[in-house]
Amino acid sequence: MNIYPLPELIALRATWRASGLKVVFTNGVFDLLHVGHVRYLTAARALGDRLIVAINSDESTRQLKGSLRPIVPEAERATIVAALRCVDAVTIFNERTAEAVVAALAPDLYVKGGDYGQGTTFDAARLPEARVVQALGGEVQILPFSEGHATTRLIERIVARYGGEGGNADGRGFGG
Length: 176
Known about the structure:
By secondary structure, the protein is of the alpha/beta class. It has one domain: Rossmann fold (3-Layer(aba) Sandwich), CATH 3.40.50. Helix content is 39%, strand content 18%. The protein has 7 helices and 7 strands; from the N terminus they run αβαβααβαβββαβα. Helix 5 (99-105) runs parallel beside helix 6. The two termini are 29 Å apart.
């Protein structure tokens, strides 16, 4: 499996650099993986030769999203993302931001979704990782946001459809 602790990923990144490969980096929670995530990661990978995805740990996800998140534990989220053909390496980080991971890996390109800006224009206050990448000589690219595809909306749809506890309104449960 292509899930690495950061020290191993740093060594792998060094081999990619020595081979002249363009490394793209992104990070996020990736809770309840959906088509928007897959399209985003596929588009990110198309911008380089290798794609590294750093996933927020359960603790950092709770710090960012609240006590009810994540839905899917970090090890499972990492396994799911790592299984995607477009992803070359995955690591998990515990901090609120991926600044330290970015500083350690020095990617050639840092990519985030359109909710952080547009094109090469981004909200620097919300993307401290972008400042680190630029300081290391890398580039930043904001990919278009996939409208209608967000984990929060997916959770809201599930709750609306199946109600609170115990399943759907007809009492049959969630259907396995």
